[in-house]
Amino acid sequence: TQLLEQSPQFLSIQEGENLTVYCNSSSVFSSLQWYRQEPGEGPVLLVTVVTGGEVKKLKRLTFQFGDARKDSSLHITAAQPGDTGLYLCAGGEAGRRALTFGSGTRLQVQP
Amino acid sequence: DSGVTQTPKHLITATGQRVTLRCSPRSGDLSVYWYQQSLDQGLQFLIQYYNGEERAKGNILERFSAQQFPDLHSELNLSSLELGDSALYFCASSPRPSSYEQYFGPGTRLTVT
Questions:
Q1: Cβ of residue A48 closer than 8 Å to a chain B Cβ
Q2: Backbone angles phi, psi at A81, to 5 degrees
Q3: Which mean pLDDT values do the consecutive 10-residue runs of chain B (113 residues) have?
Q4: Which residues of chain B have a CB within 8 Å of the CB of A97?
Q5: Which of B45, B101, B105 sits opposite A98 (nearest CB)?
Q6: Taking Cα atoms as reference points, which of B82, B80, B35 lies closest to residue B56?
Q7: Which residues in chain B touch residue A102, judged by CB atoms under 8 angstroms apart?
Q8: pLDDT, tens digit, for every residue of A19-67?
């Protein structure tokens, strides 16, 4: 089973700051998803990227899939308290139906 | 709201007992996945069903079993419960077995005392 490492594990910033979360693996993934999870709730799908070098934007969130499809990043511009949560990356492998999840980045945005 | 429903929301039981967790996938989704989330292990894949048939197994203990019924709802059965089984259990669904996108339910929090 391939592993996904996320960094940083914890991030506490002030409202209005920018931040980047990283998701890295030594292996290639067919797809990469980002989820956000709030306490006591299930992960909510934010985006799926499938092409190496692909960039997707969702309002203030920018997602990038590495050229070699081994890594991904999530950049948040002008963070808001509503962005607070656990951000999880998840990789899909060709021929394997289950997702491999990273350990998560816990983000706290202070007002 | 993802459209995936899970019951119960919370479950407290004693060691050695057996419990059943229930999941209804999104309308039209044929594939159901079960995951376990604990503080030290993160989200771990347990098992997948597609249209009633088991399709993939992950790190699922022999004390755990699951099934998917003709109406596509799924149940996860946990038996001979141990303290270490305390965790959040999530169900996710997708329209096809090979779909990369999965939609998660709100989870069942299991506490074994």
A1: yes
A2: -55, -30
A3: 94 97 96 90 90 91 97 97 96 82 94 97
A4: 31, 33, 48, 55-56, 97-98
A5: B45
A6: B35
A7: 42
A8: 999 999 988 888 899 999 998 899 999 999 999 999 999 999 999 999 9
